Every structure is written in C-alpha cells, then in structure tokens.
Amino acid sequence: MSEQARKTAEGLEYLTGFGNEHSSEAVPGALPLGRNSPQRAALGLYAEQLSGSAFTEPRTHNRRSWLYRIRPSAAHPPFTRIDNGALRTGPFTELPADPNRLRWNPLPDPAPGTDFLAGLWTLGGNGDAAQRTGMAIHLYAANASMTDRVFSSSDGELLIVPERGGLLLRTELGLLAARPGEVALIPRGVRFRVELLDTDTDTGTGTGTGDGSDRAPARGYVCENYGQPFELPNLGPIGANGLAAARDFRAPVAAYETPDLLDRPTEVVNKFCGNLWSATYDHSPLDVVAWHGTHVPYVYDLRRFNVLGSISYDHPDPSIFTVLTSPSDTPGLAGVDFVVFAPRWLVGEDTFRPPYFHRNVMSEYMGLIEGAYDAKAEGFVPGGGSLHNMMSAHGPDRETFDRASAAELKPQKIDDGLAFMFETRWPITATAQAAGAEHLQRGYDDVWQGLQRHFRA
Ligand SMILES: O=C(O)Cc1cc(O)ccc1O
Ligand SMILES: [Fe+2]
C-alpha cells in the first residue's frame, strides 16, 4: 500500500513529498481545475492566496498556496495587543550576548490548564523578525489542549520538536500528528490549534482525562525561523540519495472544523513583529475546504533519517547530519540548520569517536529528545538544552574524553538517544528569563575540569 493511502494511528491521511505542488479537497469538487480564481469558486467557497515568498522569487524558492475557504480571512475584527507571556522576539536586547557555555534542565511543569501557546517560553535567538533574518529558540510545556483559539506567527515558520507527549496540529491546511522523534513545521502565517494526544503509548504520560490537569506536560522545542524557509540541503558528492529523503515529508490533506466549531467564536492570536495580537472572530478560521500549493505544513519522522558517516577514520563534521537548512544570502552559510544525531554505527579506526573539542564560528543550541548524547556523560538531559555560542570552546566532557580515549575500537552502535542542534550563523543571545532561570545549570564549566596535562617537553 502506498504511504499516501495508509492512515496513521490517529486515522490521519497524508500527502507525501517535500516542496511538492500538493493539492487536496475535503469535499469533492471544491478545488477548481485549470485556474486558481474562477469568477465564482465552487460550492460557494472563497478563493484566497497565501504567499510565503515574494511573488517574484525564483521557482525553487517560491512558496504559495491557494485556499478555498468558507469565509475569506479578510472578514475579521481589529486585532488588539495582548500580553506576550514568555515569548520574546529578535532583536534580542535584554542582555548582552554571552560567550559562556550555558546549559539548562527541562522547563518546570506549567500551571494546570496551560496550552501550547501559553506554554511557549523563549530561551534566546538572533536577528530581527522585522528584517526576516535570524531565529528564536523556544521551549514549550503544556498540559491542556488549545480550545476556541488558534495561533499563527507572522514572524517566521515554526519547527516544532516534541520531546514528551504527542501533538495533534489542526492547521488551516489539515491535520498533522507529531510525536517525540518526529518534527512538524508550520509555515509562516498558517493558523493552527494544538491538541495534546492522549495516548499512553508514546511516553506513558497521558492519562486520558481530557482536561489535562493531572497529566505530565507535553514538552518540546521550537525553532522560529525568521529567515528563508527551511529546505532540504544539497547533497553534493553524497549523490542523489541520503540524509532526509523528500518522500518522507508528509503534508496534511484538506480538513476543516466540525460543524459545532465552525461557527463558534474563536480567538485568533497572531505573533507580529514580536508582539501577540488577538482578535475574536465569529467563526473558526480553520475553514479551508480545499487547497493546493507549496506553502504547506509537514511532519517528518527523524527515525527515517539516513545517517551517513565515516567508514574509514575521523569524526565527520555534523553538517553531515543536516535535516533541513534555512539558507542565507551567502552560499553554504545557513541562517539556521536543523541537525539530528540519530542512532548510527561508529567504525572509525584510530579515531576519537565522540564529538571533538572545537570552537565554531557558528552558534550551536542543542536539545535532547530521548536518551543520552555521546559527547556528554551526564547533565545533558531530555528536555534540557545547551548553548555553545560563536567561538566558545566545547566538546566532550572529561568523563567522555577519558572513556573514548581508552575505548577498544570495535564497531559500536550508538542507539541510546536522539539529540538535535539548531546551528546558526549569528550568535545567540539569551533572554533575561533564560539567563536567570532556576533551571539554568550553575557550574556547567566544571564538566571540562580535570582534563590533565599529559604533555611533558
Ligand atoms: O558540539 C556538539 O556536540 C555538536 C557537534 C557534534 C559533532 O559531532 C561535531 C561537532 C559539533 O559541534
Ligand atoms: Fe559543537
């Protein structure tokens, strides 16, 4: 059976392929054929274009979708400012950029009734959302589904990396499920609502009561990319296959709210140039009956990543693990790369196999989805994160260095963890709440203490 025809555990159907010109209709006949904007759209729907790139960008970068919806998005009352909660946006000016190595434990559990939007907490970032450069790193911890409200970011696309608990993303273009080990991308401007998946199978945390008050929170990471949309990296000499395969990216099929929700007042929260703005519509904007285009949400299962590496000697640079890249104006210099450290074999001969000691002009934020990471013996925990800013010295902690320097070099499978990195060309400035957080680990530098002098002249 083709992947397209196969339904997921949640009964969801997907369209497959990265960057495709997809099309989908929830009601037969809703999608016009041969034109985008007929004089009267079928079934009394309104046609609307959603542009994620300038009209004139080259085809390879051009992103837009045509939506056929029950009400046009233009029919809405004025937006007014609401509290930004713990969301922050570039430019990040609360504190100076810090050259120190920083590491955090997971976010504390949120108050009961915290949904995905309320649970977003910005760690730091760079660039300027209004200039459409740079990125923000957010974490989230949520124990309730969003009800009667939807969210969108005009500032950037949202790459959501669940670490605990599954998410059901009800987007304008349809439904996506993302569980730990999968990532989801919501394009700039697309409205969506996040429900917590209440299964006991993913992490054993769900209790199925619905109100979320007695369940462990869903947690994860979000990269809000203000820059050019993520794309698949070029493969160069790797060849035509390898790393993330385009066919493994899954987009939703068209789906709109059930009748009881379609005409309910719905709060639409829009993140715009760093602030949250709210308007209560007299209907839900998740009312798209058909669509076609390239500006689409998607999910990707990180376990499908085809991990390549050295089969002779030395530890390759982690660019070989790039899942998605947001290019900047300089070739090869990413605004942000999304990199995954997935299970793999290490076979390098006469090689120090874990990540090497290094100082990098790029800035590295790392998170852990499960298990452990091969550069850190302890302290880097699922739901936590580390920041190794531009040129800061880091690498294996002392325990890892000692162990790997003495290890017998037989083929070894690393299969006890799933880590990732947001790597960016600009230094990352922490927010005040991140720099002052209770869950910031004091004394992170100590992991590199005790590395002895062995050289004697
Ligand atoms: O710092 C890190 O752990 C990330 C990283 C991993 C690796 O394998 C090589 C370089 C690098 O920055
Ligand atoms: Fe690094």
From TrEMBL:
This is Homogentisate 1,2-dioxygenase. Residues 303-455 form the Homogentisate 1,2-dioxygenase C-terminal domain. The keyword 4Fe-4S does not apply. It comes from the Bacteria. Belongs to the homogentisate dioxygenase family. Its cofactor is Fe cation. Pathway: Amino-acid degradation; L-phenylalanine degradation; acetoacetate and fumarate from L-phenylalanine: step 4/6. Its EC number is 1.13.11.5. GO terms for biological process: L-phenylalanine catabolic process; L-tyrosine catabolic process. It comes from Streptomyces subrutilus. It catalyses: homogentisate + O2 = 4-maleylacetoacetate + H(+). The active site is at H315. Fe cation binds at H358, E364, H394. The gene is hmgA. InterPro entries: HgmA_C, HgmA_N, Homogentis_dOase, Homogentis_dOase_bac, RmlC-like_jellyroll, RmlC_Cupin_sf. GO terms for molecular function: homogentisate 1,2-dioxygenase activity; iron ion binding.
